[in-house]
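Problem 3 from the worked examples.
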Amino acid sequence: MSQAPSGPTVPKSGWSGPSGVSWSDAVEAVEPYGGDDLVIAGRSYGSRLLVGTGKFAAHEVMRDSLLASGAEIVTVALRRVDLDRAGEGDVLDFVPPAMTLLPNTSGAADAAEALRLARLGRAATGTGLVKLEVTPDPRTLAPDPIETLRAAELMVADGFTVLPYCSADPVLARRLEEAGCATVMPLGSWIGSNRGLRTRDAIEAIVAGAGVPVIVDAGLGVPSDAAEAMEIGAAAVLVNTAIAVAADPVRMARAFALATVAGRLGYLAGQAGPGTATAASASSPLTGFLGALGAAPPGTSANGNGKAVG
């Protein structure tokens, strides 16, 4: 079992996935530091990577990718769940039982529809967690800020723990927090676009003012996008499309897991800040004994042979 220098591994013994990914090698999930858990509504999670269940070529591939990611929270669209087929090969049958299920209201066009879907999900799954999505525009799937805030207020009043997908708007994020949401989940770029962290500046402003975890959701296309989001202070990231449509989803899930850890470690380490210098600065300047070697004593050559010149 591999061991992180500053924290324990998260064991996955007994499981071996396709594509050569096994949990006996050095790619086991690692925690950055003991006690650095993601906390949502008072519950702690060791992984800061959340994953989705859509777009996978097969349920078996989805299951293996979820395991490879090391994630503890998995989101599923309530519209995709066939409750009449429970135990007969429905998507929920392939979600590892140890994972926390986060039903989402994908496809809801307004607050009323989102609340209806959330209530159906709670009745079916027994969880009060809900990932709030209100996306009336089918072209961009952009979250409707007005209906999202309205739905959040209704859901919190109805006893839900609400994790709202929202635009990268610092004012809206503050309003959602004030409404009682457990997190805010600003988009990195359009859902499913894999275009990366296009909203970086806005997310930095949201992080700076937030009193709840900020989870970057949507648009992260490669593992370095996840690392970048974590480096600027996001509490977690949610990834679906980039893993599901990869040529090797299991390997991509591992890559995102490791990138999320790397980004978190970078954030905890304390970045020196963006560079503003216009000239180079040597990391190993010629000072001290090296500088002394470069200066020839009086009456000798500078080539260090100790012989007098002339």
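Problem 4, a separate protein:
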Amino acid sequence: MKPTHIKIVTLLLLLAAVTPAMRGNTTAALDSLYTSPSYEAYLDTLYNARPVQEIFTALRHLRDYLKDQRSAAGSAAVVEAHALALTGKHFIVEDYCHDIAAGKQYLQEAEKILEQSQCSEASICSQASVVKAEIAGSYFLTDQAAYLFTYGLSSSKHIEDALSIAPDNIHAQIMLANKYFYTPGLFGGSLRKARSILEKIDLTGSSFPEFQLFTVLQLKGLIASKSRDSSAALSYFRQALELYPENNYLQNLVSEIAGGIN
């Protein structure tokens, strides 16, 4: 073997040895940020439909915290963009603070952060695609008829990108299940596929973000409700409400289903 070939083989072996460790460290950094007290405090205001000023305050504290995470700058940027995207979506879909213009401003700020951040490792690149899917999906919600073939398709493409980069990305898996649930069957939606994805997600472990556990339980409840299993739906919704007791959407669903059973 020629010396040049030996060098190339050696380099490839080194990369194969280093990459999994690097990926593990980055994934751990993302998990740590998503489960930090600052992020959970912010999400508590969002999912419990707190007054807008409380959401602003919690978001400001979270952003200050993330700016201090210099050792995980790439991960912190993606998590910050995700928080802004969720805030934008909140203003777009929630009746009590409905403000599409404000929602779009947060989405645009999230996009700008992603554009300026460097995607240097697989887990960060995958999560950035998740956030891009969240942003596109939120734009789609502002006018579903007008944006079906633009933002709607773009959101789906970003989910595919996230899973192609990191198939074990739980955030992307949940978004894919969400997509299968909300998409009409004519366009590829499937309750069976959504349920199958959720059944394979391991909900145990301290690194599983609370807001994603809430999303999984809520989605399982919605699937059960659509499958006319009211008892299972009620059980899932009540488990989700244990995480965010003042969530208006689930409170209304529980009241509606419980009234139907009684």
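Solution to problem 4. Confidence is low (pLDDT under 50) at residues 3-23. Residues 3-34 form the longest helix (32 residues).
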